[in-house]
Design brief:
The protein has about 90 residues and is an alpha+beta fold. The chain contains 2 helices and 4 strands; from the N terminus they run αββαββ. Strands 2-1-3-4 form a 4-stranded antiparallel beta sheet, covered by helices on one side. β1 and β2 form a beta hairpin. The chain is globular, with a radius of gyration of 16 Å. The protein starts with a helix and ends in an 8-residue tail after the last strand. This is DUF4288 domain-containing protein.
Amino acid sequence: MTHADESTEKVHYICQTYVEQKPGRDGQASLKIGKQFRYSTAAEAQNRAEREVQSVDCAGADAYMISEDPDSGEIGSPSFLVRLGSVPETDDF
């Protein structure tokens, strides 16, 4: 493996589900992360999100990709493939 190969960006495809938390003192229900799955393709992550959101206990699901710089360990902002059901605002991500 050459040095150039080692510094190439890694891409991760994630399916993340959300569940509703019971209302707090303010009476508002909120979302929390339920499950996270990592896949090798965008299609796999999107398919899983579509299946998960059908579950009774799942409030919503995201499928997204993130890039990672293996040299610095920095992770970029998510690029959403699909957002289904109740999901947090992107500012909250």
